[in-house]
């Protein structure tokens, strides 16, 4: 595949994701306004809590789009890797935002359980039904790219969870219409909180891991060490470090002990090719002759 074709695909993907983010943000912010107004006018904590959650998703989408664009900025003398790390910080921040939303939902739901209030079930049903359509459509927009970027995966998970949550709100509205049992509204609010925690947990864990330079979840440290050592000219490997430059790019540094230093360039090319096939595109390798001492070898 030519360099020009690769560049074209990269530009097309960038434009595509930018458009997806913009469309998703516009759809969701419109729905948040509708849901907040309906929840306030008709005294539904289910709608208000879902609106608060959806508002946090709008903020998350805006931040994810900003991080995506910043990650494309060329590196400079001050930021030698560019702004790629921003994508990791944003994914962590988004997870924290969701946990704050959970605290708000739990608080409001408990208050409504203590002092139940009458709710217009039909408004709850129709408003939440709109949410099912919007959230499902937004999740569908991200589905193709969800396994390639942690921020996109986060956006997809949030939207998919929101669609399910909105289904729950629809069910609560139907129950209110048919039975007059208003207590179901705050109960649904608590269920929403549980769903958000479960859908956010993996995002929080992975983004926190990457923010402190942990080995990315899609990289097996021992397997990486084994495939490097599979080269017969390599006698030892130490100072092996693997971390994420962004939510889509991984880096590696290592000291490689060779039996024959004259084969260094060949071995280097081989290792970088293998690492590329295993999700690591940025590798810095230092080669050492056999029987040469290396200070702090096992750090």
Could you tell me how far the N terminus lies from the C terminus, measured between alpha carbons in angstroms?
41 Å
Order of helices and strands: HHHHHHHEEHE
- Count of extended strands: 3
Count of helices? 8
Structure, explained:
The protein is built from eight helices and three strands. Helices cover 66% and strands 9% of the residues. Helix 8 (264-277) links the parallel strand 2 (250-258) and strand 3. It is elongated and about 80 Å long. It has a three-stranded mixed β-sheet with strand order 1-2-3, covered by helices on one side. It folds into two domains: 3-211, Alpha-lytic protease prodomain-like; 221-289, Cation efflux protein, cytoplasmic domain (Alpha-Beta Plaits, 2-Layer Sandwich), CATH 3.30.70. It has 299 residues and is mainly alpha-helical. Helix 1 packs antiparallel against helix 4 and helix 2 (45-70) packs antiparallel against helix 3 (86-114). Mean pLDDT is 81; it is low at 1-15. It has helices at residues 3-41, 45-70, 86-114, 121-142, 150-179, 184-211, 221-229, 264-277; strands at residues 234-244, 250-258, 282-289.
Structure described in brief:
By secondary structure, the chain is mainly alpha-helical.
